[in-house]
Amino acid sequence: MTALPRRGVIALIPDDCTSCLICVQECPTWCISLDSHTEQVAEPGARRPRTVSVLDRFTIDFGLCMYCGICVDVCPFDALAWAPDVDYSAASRPGLVQDTGTLASWRIDD
Prior knowledge:
110 residues; single chain
């Protein structure tokens, strides 16, 4: 029997995030916040530049998060993943809001 991966906290892979906002829209507690901007990207041989969203800031408020995993399941680009055994205790409520850098540091490489 295969063991299921342990759920600890949600980690972010910023390079894989396209700022599609699906995780934000599907979160039942609205604990995810995402800021982005658009840029024009010119590809060789293309007739015109393509507009893409670029991630500026991604935060999760773990004081509100109920660890349901919906955001991990609905992300079409696998930019969110479960990271086991991470301690993120805080002395105050604002300390439970983790930003892009912290969420990215919790990522485990397969």
